[in-house]
Predict the structure.
Amino acid sequence: MHTLTTLIEGLDARIQGEQFADSVSSVVQHSERVTTGSLFIARSGVRRDGAAFIDDAIARGAVGIVCTPGVASTLQHKNVTVIETCDPCTIGAIIAERFHGNPSSKLKLIGVTGTNGKTTIAWLIRHMLSNSGVKCGMLGTIVCDDGIASMQSTLTTPSFCDIGSILHKMVDNGCKAAVMECSSHALDQGRVAALDFEIGVFSNLSGDHLDYHGSADAYLQAKMRLFDNVSGCAVINMDDPASWSVADHANARVISCRTESDAAAAWVEILEEKLDGSHIRLHGAWGSIEVVFPLLGRHNATNALQAVVVAHELGISNEAIAKALACAPSPPGRLQRVQAGDGAVFVDFAHTDDALEQMLWSVRHVLPEGGRLHVVFGCGGDRDASKRPRMGRIASTVGDAAYATSDNPRSEDPETILDEVLSGVPLDREPLVHRIVDRKLAIQTAIHAASECDVVVIAGKGHEKNQILKDRVVPFDDVKIAEETILKQGTAQ
């Protein structure tokens, strides 16, 4: 049983007033998870202030409250131990890590951040380590894998209380390493502030989440916070303009990475590109590794390079790396080929203008002779609206035919979102753009319009299995709808 005294020892926090209890059975930051003996972290959130749930936490059996001095002064009459600190987020994260036995220090922990590519890099790292006999857990956008059980994720990066619990399970389950995606929201909110990262990876930075961060600089500053906690090395994609700021900020040894340029510690040559993958050669401290890599696109060659740097740093041999890369599975919804019919239909998560542009150009490079590129895309509601016209411009200029449709409109009117998206379409490209607010119909229309040598890309939702509307969440799977459309079309022919 942990005690309040040991959990806050040496921290910028103190017990205010009378101490009613000392032993702690759990550390939580959501009042509905409080049970008898819990320590409740009353941290301020973007939408809700944890202080508003203190009474509920006490009623459910909390024995201690971590809060700001201002809130602490209002709790003097409560029969609960009050711990005051000016920074409940950071202190709460450290307390949670301590409560679970500092599990991050018992793992080779790799953090991956950036606007695009986080999931694929993390996926490849886990694949290479696992294939080499190193048990590796994962926390990311698609799955949470504790070494035994794998479940669908609800957040790219969970709360610090959940992270501590999951990493503890990984240690208990025999994991020697863990890889986690670190979102800008999580970094800004201090969810990973107490973790001990062996390796940090920076993929790239492009316009996204400005509705939350307010400016591109604030967004970058949030991403760079990962490298405050990296002790081993920082693996940085130097093709990205923001990389220089990240490299300067990092305290750890920097390993620079580039694509098609040897002006870095590690670089990748793309020898040949096809719809079913790329022939690549990876150069670095390991020498060179040549492999036919089954993931499509130049951006995935870059992702593979950064993942290989991590695997090499963790002691994986060239032979094991090459073998793993040759059979690397595509993460769900990341240029995932729809396994139905003979046509080329891909589903991708690209939901920023930069990700969409990189992905579409990757596909365009490998279009069969005479083939056309059909792009189904949209933009989510209640998210950064500044990227909407840019998405419209890119889909209509890189694609030969574009189908603007609904994504996850949330509380916004889908037609209004499409108005903003289509405002970015150049006049000479307008005839090539189809406005179809019904996403299922847009997917069906694109597939029906595609000829034998054409490629269809359905962008925006990737692995997601639902569509979030104003008043409800409905089942919606781009892959499943595409499969059904292809099979029905084949039966009708």
